[in-house]
Write a structure and sequence with these properties.
By secondary structure, the chain is an alpha+beta fold. The protein is built from three helices and five strands.
């Protein structure tokens, strides 16, 4: 059974700025995460609650940051973008 997916305001702003072909790849990554949220790599330190799923789009590495609430089976999409400065921007 798939998890319900909710977007944070930060994620929605980032998603809105994407080109259609990259947005399609992001949608595919979201479907993968909704089916199995443990696929992402769990971070350590300041971002310990965050999982990151890596995927490629247009020859560039993108990261999808999310948190999971197993009790109510919800995946919260926190951030998405290219690998460059992803963690720095997420900490701010």
């Amino acid at each position: 059974m798939s998890y319900k997916v909710l977007q944070t305001r930060h994620f929605a702003r980032q998603y809105k700025k994407l080109h259609d072909n990259v947005a399609a790849d992001v949608e595919a990554a979201i479907d993968v995460v909704a089916d199995n949220p443990t696929l992402g790599e769990r971070k350590k330190g300041d971002l310990a609650q965050l999982f990151v799923y890596k995927f490629r789009s247009q020859g560039q590495l993108y990261l999808l940051g999310y948190t999971v609430d197993d009790e109510i089976r919800v995946v919260y999409l926190e951030a998405m973008g290219p690998h460059e400065n992803f963690y720095r921007d997420l900490k701010q």
